[in-house]
Each structure stands twice: as C-alpha cells, then as structure tokens.
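User: Sequence recovery, please. Input:
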C-alpha cells in the first residue's frame, strides 16, 4: 500500500482549493474569485486500491499583509511543508510572479516539488503555452510538470497516477470511506464563510469570522446557530443589509450548501456581533483553528 501526505501550495487564488475538491471528488475547501479564501489547512483524503493520498490544502502564501491572522496563515504553509511526502506547487497558466518564486524558495531543498499549471482552459491557443512551459522546464527543481484545468477536471487523471506512484509504502492512515480529517462543524462554518466572500464586497469578508455556537442533531433536522464577527458597527450594518436582507440571503445560500453536504434538513440561525480587533486576538484565533 502506498500512503502519503501531499501539500498543495501556491500564491492566493491560483485554484488550490478547486484542485483539492476535484481530486477527492467532494467539496471540502471553499472557493471564490477573491484571494485568501482559505485560512487554515484542510486535508482531503483520496483512497483507491493500493493507494491513499492525503492532500493538504494550505492558505495562499502572502507577503502583502501583516498581523496575527496572516502570520498564522503563512505558518500553516511552512508547517505543512515540513510534514509531507510530496509537494504540489500550483501556479496560473502564463503567469510566474515574484510571489511564485518566493513560494518555490520556501520549499525545503530536499524536496523536488511537482508543478501543476492550472487554468489552462483560459489560454486561447495552446501555442501560447510553449514558451511558458519551456521556461518552467528550465527550473530544474521540479520533478514533473502537469498543465491542468481543475475547474473542468481536465488532465487530472495522469496527475493522480503520478502522485500515487511516488508515495512511500505504509499502512492506511484513515478509513477508506473518510474524505477529510475535519469535522462537520468545521465545514458548516466554512460554507457560511464562503457566502460572505460570494455576496459581500472586496474588503468585508476579510474582516469577518464565523463561530459555530450550536450544532444539535434533532429528530427531523440539524439545528445550527452561528455568530458572524466583524470589527465595527459600520461593517455590521453592511452585513445585515436593509431590513436584514443581505444576512437573510447569506443564510439561505449557506443553508442550501450545508443541507447538500450533510444530506439533511437544516435550520440555520445567524447573528452578527461587533468584536473589534478579533484578528489580533490569539485566544479567539485558536478557537477558529489557527496555530501559532
């Protein structure tokens, strides 16, 4: 049996979470068009005959922002790199930025990462990819290069075969039917947070956190109550919307996602609370799953 941990690393918004979801065949990491959607490590588990792959989706490594929250997110990346058997570096087709180079330098010298070039479906002509591929092949650190479209699930099968062939032998680490190490409660919070990114402006989702206050399995449904934390009263007003319209829309969309995931009818109650400086509160961040 070949078993191992595989880190997915890359700068923000290159499609790591979409790639994880497609590889394991289930939505585990939330996605949006905005960067930094993922805040903590999420493990996705793919078990096939003779192979178990444990994919670790990491937050996008970033150098732009400071603060305790973002330091925790970057540490999540570096911690993952020290505990895996393989590293998959994900980049965007036709783009190689200083941030990509910085991430490559973060990968320990003893590891030869595999390069996944994502979003090739957005390239109008395959001929445009030739010089880009040649430039990447000149970087001798990469063990292999796979152009893919995670969104369209294009060219993922050869990637999976390659990864499985290069894992060490060992016993199963998880039951064959397990798809993640995270709890249902964790995923509920993530589905709510995903709707904040999808339905709010460019800044507010980054100033918002989700805390699950109650998760109870009742006879006919699952009752969930959650608090949305914001920094100031102005953000609270925006999040609630006129006569509660925006909060209701967020709750409805999140509930539908949660019901699909849990395969159960769900009651979802949302409240908004002002907690200034929550992103610098180490105790609270640990409750939200961040390590320091």
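Assistant: Recovered sequence (292 residues):
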């Amino acid at each position: 049996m070949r078993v191992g941990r595989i880190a997915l690393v890359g700068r923000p918004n290159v499609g790591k979470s979409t790639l994880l979801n497609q590889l394991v065949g289930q939505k585990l990491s939330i996605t949006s068009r905005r960067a930094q959607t993922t805040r903590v490590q999420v493990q996705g588990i793919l078990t096939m005959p003779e192979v178990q792959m444990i994919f670790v989706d990491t937050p996008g490594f970033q150098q732009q922002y400071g603060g305790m929250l973002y330091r925790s997110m970057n540490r999540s990346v570096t911690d993952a790199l020290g505990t895996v058997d393989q590293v998959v570096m994900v980049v965007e087709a036709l783009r190689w930025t200083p941030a990509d180079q910085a991430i490559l330098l973060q990968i320990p010298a003893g590891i030869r990462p595999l390069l996944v070039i994502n979003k090739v479906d957005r390239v109008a002509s395959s001929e445009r990819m030739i010089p880009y591929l040649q430039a990447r092949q000149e970087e001798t650190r990469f063990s292999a290069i796979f152009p893919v479209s995670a969104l369209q699930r294009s060219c993922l099968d050869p990637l999976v075969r390659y990864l499985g062939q290069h894992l060490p032998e060992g016993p199963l680490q998880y039951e064959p039917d397990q798809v993640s190490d995270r709890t249902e409660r964790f995923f509920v919070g993530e589905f709510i947070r995903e709707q904040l990114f999808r339905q709010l402006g460019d800044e507010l989702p980054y100033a918002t956190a989700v805390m699950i206050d109650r998760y109870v399995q009742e006879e006919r449904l699952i009752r969930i109550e959650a608090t949305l934390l914001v920094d100031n009263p102005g953000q609270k007003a925006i999040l609630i919307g006129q006569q509660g319209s925006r909060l209701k829309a967020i709750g409805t969309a999140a509930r539908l996602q949660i019901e699909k995931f849990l395969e159960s009818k769900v009651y979802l109650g949302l409240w908004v609370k002002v907690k200034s400086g929550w992103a610098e509160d180490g105790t609270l961040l640990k409750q939200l799953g961040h390590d320091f």
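The CA atoms of residues 22 and 257 lie 17 Å apart.
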